[in-house]
Amino acid sequence: MVNWRRLTAMATGSAHKLWGEPVRLSFLKEGLVDPARPQIELRAQLHLPEEVDGKLGRSASQFSTEVVSGVGRLIILKADFEGHTLKTGDQARGLEREGAHWFEVISADSRGNDQIVAQISLATKSAS
Question: If DSSP codes are grouped into helix, strand and coil, which group holds residue 29?
Fold first, then answer.
């Protein structure tokens, strides 16, 4: 019998190795850096609307909607994020990206088996 959880974990791990990059997460409380939750750096997938290389396998109409709304995705392996919680308003930055813009977490879904998927948009105020 096929072990779907094992296959899902293998696929998720392979995608993470292929598309992952160093990311800094800054945890905020009421718009300010939360001293109880210090910044961390980890490997995560950062998919932005302007990236048209088809990484997420989106349809053209779905991608167009995301470009207009300016919504991207941050994907974190749960195994790399133990002991932390990602909340709306927290910020992420790709450390190897030109310009190193901060992105704000709009929503985060941790219900999946192996990963946390957050919708992100360009932050209006950086966490520094």
Answer: strand
52 DSSP 8-state letter: -
Cα–Cα separations (whole angstroms), residue 14 to 7, 18, 63, 75, 94: 11, 6, 23, 13, 20
Residue 119 CA: distances (Å) to CA of 46, 76, 106, 126: 10, 12, 5, 17
Q: Up-side HSE of residue 91: CA atoms within 13 Å toward CB?
A: 23
Asked if 28 and 34 count as a contact pair (C-beta separation under 8 A), the reply is yes
CB 26 within 8 A of CB 127: yes
CA distances (Å), origin 53, targets 3, 19, 94, 102, 128: 31, 12, 17, 21, 29
Q: What is the DSSP letter of 68?
A: H
Tell me if residue 117 falls in helix, strand or coil: strand
Span 83-94, average pLDDT: 93
pLDDT bucket at 127, cuts 50 / 70 / 90: low
60-76: burial string, b at 16+ Cβ within 10 Å, e else: eeebeebeeeebbbbbb
At residue 66, does pLDDT exceed 50?
Answer: no
